[in-house]
């Protein structure tokens, strides 16, 4: 191999390695967390909160907010439960459940668009919701395990200064997704194991934790 060919081969290895790293980061939904300082110019505007459906009596149906806390594991558990808890008979729609999670999103707005897309991957589409409502479908999550994945330590070591907010961490959640409904006038239930990773930040000054991103369902960090 002549010097020119050797140089081309080295460049190809560098390009392929970099491309593979980008694909891995995109696959777990955290590419935005490690691609640069969180200083948007200008900061994206926060979307308006959707109006909650109103009952015949005129009282709005509101979902309980995610409790404020500076405890990262407690926050991760609350987010996980809110992400999977929904009821198609409530008169609410998927966007209403999304808004609860966006209320605790990173206030800088940098990750909000990505987070909204992440959440959409966990909730039924509007069309699916309409179908599920015919069977009075409800869902909740039984958490069986919560831990900081070993690969997160590697991500922190490889991050450049300023690429991660102080207090940023990740928790992998393992659990059982329970669904219940009515089929041919008979109650029916199903259970399915799930796993995913929540990326969050709890500021060192004691301010409440905020949600950054979610991994793809069943593709958690380990």
Our estimate of the beta-strand percent is 15-25%
Question: Which class best fits the helix and strand makeup?
Answer: alpha+beta
Please report the distance between the alpha carbons of the first and last residues. 41 Å
Average pLDDT score: 80
Secondary-structure map with pairings?
Blueprint: H1 3-27, H2 72-84, E1 86-87, H3 94-102, H4 112-120, H5 126-133, E2 138-147, H6 150-158, E3 168-183, E4 186-201, E5 210-214
Helix pairs in contact: 3-4
Description:
- By secondary structure, the protein is α+β, with helices and mostly antiparallel strands.
- It has one domain (3-214).
- It has helices spanning 3-27, 72-84, 94-102, 112-120, 126-133, 150-158, and strands at 86-87, 138-147, 168-183, 186-201, 210-214.
- A five-stranded antiparallel sheet has the order 1-2-3-4-5.
- The longest helix is centred in the N-terminal third of the chain and has 25 residues, at 3-27.
Descriptors:
single chain, disordered N terminus, 222 residues, 22% strand, 33% helix, alpha+beta, 5 strands, globular
Give a brief outline of the structure.
It is built from 6 helices and 5 strands. The chain has 222 residues and is an alpha+beta fold. This is Lipoprotein LpqN.
